[in-house]
């Protein structure tokens, strides 16, 4: 087998591994970070929907914010607004791990305000 090797080829495997391994590590790190961002975006969607449901049921404003923050990623900002029979809940969070990136994760949900039977009957009188 010694006759199959050429003298000039020695060390190429080491050089190729030294070039490829850092690229593979960076690719794997970027893939994991991307999955974390997608998971945080899904948390923002769930939090906005949860908050909109709570606000549509006419829960107290503090309870709506607390429920929304509990479902949102850590450090998320929550905004609840009421407009013409609808509630809008906006959840804004920073991407996980790399907080210096120039974008935020943002999701909003809108729901119609639910009226109880007593309010509907009293509104017509």
UniProtKB/TrEMBL annotation:
Protein name: Membrane protein
Transmembrane feature ranges: 12-36
Pfam families in alphabetical order: TadE
Domain TadE-like: 11-53
Keywords for the protein's UniProt record, in alphabetical order: Membrane, Transmembrane, Transmembrane helix
């Amino acid at each position: 087998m010694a006759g199959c090797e050429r003298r000039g080829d020695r060390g190429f495997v080491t050089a190729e591994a030294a070039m490829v391994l850092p690229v593979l590590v960076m690719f794997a790190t970027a893939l994991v970070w991307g999955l974390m961002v997608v998971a945080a975006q899904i948390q923002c969607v769930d939090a906005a929907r949860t908050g909109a449901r709570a606000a549509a049921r006419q829960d107290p404003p503090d309870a709506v914010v607390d429920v929304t923050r509990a479902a949102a990623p850590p450090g998320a900002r929550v905004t609840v607004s009421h407009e013409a029979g609808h509630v809008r809940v906006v959840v804004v969070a920073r991407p996980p791990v790399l907080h210096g990136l120039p974008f935020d994760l943002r999701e909003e949900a809108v729901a119609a305000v639910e009226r109880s039977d007593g309010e509907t009957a009293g509104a017509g009188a």
